[in-house]
Amino acid sequence: MLRQVTHTDRIVTLDYANGATARFHAVWLRDNALDPTTRAPGNGQRLITIGDIPAGLSIGAAALAGDALSVTFLPENKTVTFPADWLAAHAYDRDHDHPIGWTAPGITTWESAIAAPGGDWTAVHTNPAAKRDWLAAVAEFGFARLTGGPAEPGALLKVADLFGYVRETNYGRYFEVRTEVNPTNLAYTGLGLQAHTDNPYRDPVPTLQILYCLENSAEGGDSIVVDGFRAAERLRDANPEGFALLAGYPARFEYRGSDGVCLRARRPMIELSPDGQLVAIRFNNRSSAPFVDIPFDKMEAYYAAYRQLAEFIDDPAMGVAFKLEPGESFIVDNTRVLHARTGYSGAGSRWLQGCYADKDGLLSTLAAMEATAPEAAE
């Protein structure tokens, strides 16, 4: 609750009943005014440009209006009200320093001791609360299982329909993961696969991957997931210089498949935002192209950091393993969580289908559900 408001011609200072203080600049308040001539009532999009705000903008008055702030801007002589809770949620007068490699609020990094999050097929398709919890698990942990689904080809598309759309690639709307005589990708063999993120040679990469089981009677073929953010945290803590090398220089990735397909990307293995937040992990030994963007005198240290990151990723204490049964699936945040599989024999059969989707659709669906049912999210 607001207790007091003071202002100069450029800055408003709010004192809260809990002792907190927050300052807001006049130009920021005017740009974020909530009135219908500044923001479209239906979708909240801004109706003014930065050039529409007077260069000589100042604050003519600022006062409490119940548990809200009322501000009059000059020379427009425009008065706007801001709810106190909205201002508190958007306060920027705070410490902006973060440790390198920090993670955003709402993200929980993990190792093998985690209880794998998941949901039931029927529940997530019929119960909004179950669907919301499943989506929230993907957002927080970067992966979640789904059990009890139909063991029928194409069912994975119904998983994507829960939150968004399939992202079609050169592999099609979805692809088959089973042994092929002349495979175009090592995923289509019975070989074990090191934990990796998919398609690092794309720009942008698909941000979600769904793998759906139709048959799995072969010996082996267990699925494994590893939190790449946790591996990056371990590298940062053990070898900050090596962490900085993998974050500071781009790796190169390449894939040459069927005729007409040659995909290339140049991105760091550990991607950080300008303020040091962990944004993405790209790790895929099979698709790595020669590294040519690291200075000569740093190359050996770069490879040492690369090796150390791989050791953390391969550490059995990091991975969560499970064997999918027909009708079961899992989804991973492909910018964060690596997936792997153990090798499997020719006896029996293993048939999965996979597809890609985009995380913005999942996060949008989750945010909309939480906004319309806040009491259920508590």
From TrEMBL:
Belongs to the gamma-BBH/TMLD family. Its cofactor is L-ascorbate; Fe(2+). NCBIfam families: carnitine_bodg. PANTHER family: GAMMA-BUTYROBETAINE HYDROXYLASE-RELATED, OXIDOREDUCTASE AIM17-RELATED. Keywords: Dioxygenase, Iron, Metal-binding, Oxidoreductase. Residues 5-87 form the Gamma-butyrobetaine hydroxylase-like N-terminal domain. Residues 114-356 form the TauD/TfdA-like domain. It is an enzyme of class 1 (oxidoreductase). GO terms for molecular function: gamma-butyrobetaine dioxygenase activity. It comes from Ruegeria alba. Pfam families: GBBH-like_N (PF06155), TauD (PF02668). It comes from the Bacteria. This is Gamma-butyrobetaine dioxygenase. Its EC number is 1.14.11.1. The keyword Iron applies. Coiled coil: none annotated.
